[in-house]
Structure formats: structure tokens, C-alpha cells
Amino acid sequence: MAKKKLGLEDLGGFVFSTNDDFDESQYSESDSREELEPKDQQLEAHFSNKGRGGKTVTIIKGFQGPEDELVSMGKMLKKKCGVGGSTKDGEIIIQGDDREKIMKILKKEGYNVKRVGG
């Protein structure tokens, strides 16, 4: 038998208020990704072809910062490598095995990059 829900805490912490002096900032979730300087971040350049019909891709993992900065970094890498790709789930996916080129670009931008896998 399923556990019976007893109060608002059991529903995930909903807060309802009719108080005009209510300060919702104390209850709102802040961005969990802490913004770090490029030199303080440790990125990983992975090589993968699993689940992509044998096509090879380079995956950049470990970026910590706002989603819009991740997207702009992905655009910059795609443009400089002259290939396609995408940004999702906190990762940058670049078509092809361009790890060395990507690592040089990211190191020039000030990031610490480590080559991972084959």
C-alpha cells in the first residue's frame, strides 16, 4: 500500500501565502551550478560512437556555469572546428573526433582540459 501524504511537506515543499509581506526569494531555488573561472574548471574531452549509428563524436563534460554560457561555448567550438553538434544535459557534443583541436581551443580560452578515453 502506498504511503499516505500527510501535509504540504510531503508534497514537495509547496508554499502558499496570502501575506503581502511574503519574501519568495528565501524559498526559490537558486542556480545549483556555481560559476567558476575558466582556470578553476576541469573539463574532460571524451570520444564516443555508442548509440550514434557508428558516427564518432567528441563530448565535452564537466562545465560548471550557467546554461547560456555552455551554449555559447558550444557554438564557438562548432564554428572554430567547422562541424555540427549540440548542447544538452550539461555536455557539448561535437561531430567527429576533433579532441586535439578542441583541447587546444579550450586551453587557449583558459580552461583545464583532460583527454579521456581512446
UniProtKB/TrEMBL annotation:
Record region (Disordered): 1-51
Residues covered by the SUI1 domain: 50-110
MF-aspect GO terms: mRNA binding; translation initiation factor activity
GO biological process: formation of translation preinitiation complex; regulation of translation; translation reinitiation
Start-end of Basic and acidic residues biased regions: 30-43
Annotated PROSITE patterns: SUI1
Membership in a protein family: Belongs to the SUI1 family.
Protein name (Swiss-Prot/TrEMBL): Translation initiation factor
Organism name: Christiangramia lutea
